[in-house]
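Components:
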Amino acid sequence: MNGSGEAPRPEVTLEPLTRRNRNGTAYEREAWVERQIRSALDLPPEALRSRAGVSDRESPEYLSEESLVYLIRYLRRRAESQSVNDLTAALLRRLVSIVWKHLGSLGPEAVKEGESEVIDALFRRILDIDTDKADFLQVRFWVVIESLCVQAFQRQLRARKRTRSQVELSALPGYDGPDAEQSDAATLTEEELQRVSVQPLPAARLDIPFITLALSQLPENLRSAFLLRHYYEWPIEDADPTVPTISRHLNRTPRTIRTWLNEAERLLANWRGGQR
Amino acid sequence: MNRNSSGLNALEDVLDALVASAGTPSASSPEQWIRDYPQFERELVDFIASWTIMNSASPKEPSGPEADALVLRGMSIVQNLLHEMSSPPDRGPAIDSLLGRAQSLGMSLKQFAGAVRLGQVLMRKLDRRLIRYPSIPKDLLARLSATLECQEDDVSLYLQQAPTLATSARYRADSTPTLADPQDFDTAVRSDPTMAEEDRSHWLRSGAGNGH
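Structure:
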């Protein structure tokens, strides 16, 4: 039933999906998504806006994000700009908490940029009505959102790394100079040893097989700490509360992070040694 | 199976498929994906590394004002995209006049109105866009496009333009037309003296006024 109490018209044929999955078969919408779309196609603008605003997934009036993507494209083809705006706003409201969940750790400025990137990339697909780029969004909407969030997160990490690389090394907190790691380790205290052992690894050691090994072999907590320190060169800690640090990102003490990093390096060295 | 044989050539498709398949970065098996898509080796490693870090962060919740700001920023981005992409309203109308198009196909006003089950008065109002677009039934848009041998979108675009005083078609009028206030479709159906009763019943019964 649609919002006006009428039975959905059986003759309505939805635009087929043509994009293919990795097995080579065309994507297909779930049957319940197609039912939702059909039930909403004939609604007048007010009723459609009202249905798009229903957030209770159990409600019979609820329209899934996959359905909203189809409807936005359908309405855009028909140049019904007010309804396009209404459904776009409804979709954006549903995105807010998920995008924040994924990007919120980046800090207020970066999260703004990240959000904008996600929304831009998402709607470039949805509004491009001459291609099938939005097909997968009508099948697994939240999968695409997660993928877009990762890509936005990645760009922010890279930007941060670039900015940091422009700062003189001597200005970095905890940096003791190029010779520190080569100093007489045998005479260092345990604490000092921990500190020098977690300087970023030289780029030459960070080849793809090494990072792949870290990604596939390290336990999850060690993996994140290792990648942040050595791949993205984040500091473990910083007195400035606005500087993103591994300790803050993972919500662990700097001491715990150092322990994890030492353990990660030890495991990777063992695995690499064993592979030779 | 080599997943690349299926033709997932675009990086964005591969990354979407990776997320869909693995669900979490821990389950992503980077070696397997790099083997299947060696052309994206670096991108896959970067992606899985970032995914791992992103998921390890403590989740954050936006405040009310932050959530509102995101929606507003999002709307602004979408409006810019609509402007940037060649949107339908930016392209020239494919139909200059419903009556003119019908005439060019050899139909009189009476024949055209009859073909779509409308009266001639309502047909003229539609032609002049004096009927509120949201109130026009979708069935009628389909009938109009079929009769005029054009895309439904073209009819839809035409009917959403501003009301006009006269059509480009040269049907005779007894007096100089004036620009009346737009009406809802069901009101126009009820008041059209030239409409056959069975057509009037059809439109009122089929939910005229519910729009499309």
